[in-house]
Amino acid sequence: FNLSTVSINEAFSPLFGIDVTLKNNLTCKLEYRSTRVLNLSMTSVQINETTSYDWVLGMGYKINNFSFARLFGGGNHRAVKGKGNGKDNEEDNKGGKQSSSSSSSAKGFNHDLNLRFDMSLRDQANLTRDIATVTSTASSGNTAFKFSVNADYTLSKMLTLSFYYDQQVNTPLLSSSSYPTTTRDFGLSIKFSLTR
Fold first, then answer.
1. Mind giving me the DSSP string for 52-94?
2. What is the DSSP letter of 133?
3. Is the Cβ–Cβ distance between 50 and 126 less than 8 Å?
């Protein structure tokens, strides 16, 4: 048999992880991932080893029936009404609650605000091991830190407003091959769905 190359792949995605959902609509996630790829070349008598270690942290929170008017103090404009006895006001308030609940049920959707926070750290390296000289040298690799924030707000049954912010910082393992880079992306998007 003439074997030119031999490769071994190892992947734990994740090696261990914790995913928790609390009663107050708060979700938390923590993961640790590990991968390794070994390539043996019989022609060059070398072993190329690529390793990657990842830490992932994520948090999310959902606010049901979120109102921007309530956030700026404009949500209690129906609390004060005209003069009248207590029964009339109580009946009006009850009627207002029933009408608001019936109107929200008639609409068939809630103005939910979904917040998401994700952070990850990846350490990746590529090593070349020479079997003849028993030496190891680093050929490439980097450390990547990523931070992202997402917010989705339901405007109507078919419209969803989304805001996102992503930042990624890459630090190379070898300063002679490349430079540290930082990328930032942010913006607003409106999703219109006809299937709902």
1. EEEEEEEEEEEETT--HHHHTT-TTTTS---S--HHHHHHHHH
2. T
3. yes
